[in-house]
Amino acid sequence: MALSSQIARFFRHFAAGPPPNSGPERVARTLTGTSLIHSHTKVRHRSSSVPDNPVDSATDPAPVMKQHHKARCSVYPRSQVSRYPVPDEKVSWSVPYPEYAPVDFTSDSVLKMPPWADVDFRVAQTNGDSSKNIEQPQWNQLDGKVNRRSHMGNYEVVDNVPRNPVGRTGVCGRGCLGRWGPNHAADPIVTRWKRNEKGEMVVDENHKLVAQFIAVQRRDNGQWALPGGMVDAGEVVTMTLRREFGEEALNSLEANEQEKKQIEASINDLFAHGQEVYRGYVDDPRNTDNAWMETVAMNFHDSDGKGVGRFNLHAGDDAVGVQWMDLSHRLELYASHIDFLQTTAEKLGASW
């Protein structure tokens, strides 16, 4: 099988992920649907040999965005549940909204109590059986293996469950998210410099280098997006990506053992030296008043093109595609992934 097909197969499995609502307790190869609003957040840059685990980064909380928009979409994803209307001026919990009556919705897959989901601490029930011995979670802390700390700092706990730090969403409960409070994810942005047929780096009309990133096509709506994944309290998804990418790519590479070793070293080096693009609250349509997405976006740049940059990715006729795309403000991507890429382009000094 051709190398491009093998790489596409890897990202197809990554993008497709497990069944919906597979939860953050294991690295779930799914798209987080992340978005952020630059006008209301400060993007922080951080270099590290190994990206910080969200568990260990609560000492420097990210600024809270003033509004969320996708978290107030009229119909909750994967359902026919309509959100209670929340106008911009009533988003903040500090603003009185006495008539506010959010729809209480938690998907059936979450209510079935899979390992990645919490119990309903509001009613202290498990699978319909009353229980008086349910151990209360350690909110705003590392609760065993479950990361209940937020990048945004401490959140409020009201009626025994966390309250969304940005404000009202029109839905309470957990929707299709497994955890009350923050549900942690990571978004890797793998980039390289675009080159022509002669191997020369391409520049735009302003003489800026053109960068490319690996994009995957979502199975649910066909939109192009960044790959992302849910993470466990003890693991960063980018490290898992490095391991699995190496396994899948190197096993299919038509190269001798010496070449494979060189490429493996390049890949390991690439994924060991990422730079943080963003960490914090995600304006995700799955968010509710009591459960929300947070992410850490990391850029992994193959500057000399000797690692992942040498792979020519093509979507082909796969059900879910994968390809290199030019960083450009003209792109139309899922959610607000374009914002992550704009920050990446600025960091690289690349064309935008």
TrEMBL record:
<dbReference type="GO" id="GO:0047631">
    <property type="term" value="F:ADP-ribose diphosphatase activity"/>
</dbReference>
<dbReference type="Pfam" id="PF25969">
    <property type="entry name" value="NUDT9_N"/>
</dbReference>
<feature type="domain" description="Nudix hydrolase">
    <location>
        <begin position="193"/>
        <end position="347"/>
    </location>
</feature>
<dbReference type="InterPro" id="IPR015797">
    <property type="entry name" value="NUDIX_hydrolase-like_dom_sf"/>
</dbReference>
<dbReference type="InterPro" id="IPR039989">
    <property type="entry name" value="NUDT9"/>
</dbReference>
<feature type="region of interest" description="Disordered">
    <location>
        <begin position="39"/>
        <end position="69"/>
    </location>
</feature>
<dbReference type="InterPro" id="IPR000086">
    <property type="entry name" value="NUDIX_hydrolase_dom"/>
</dbReference>
<protein>
    <submittedName>
        <fullName>ADP-ribose pyrophosphatase, mitochondrial-like</fullName>
    </submittedName>
</protein>
<dbReference type="Pfam" id="PF00293">
    <property type="entry name" value="NUDIX"/>
</dbReference>
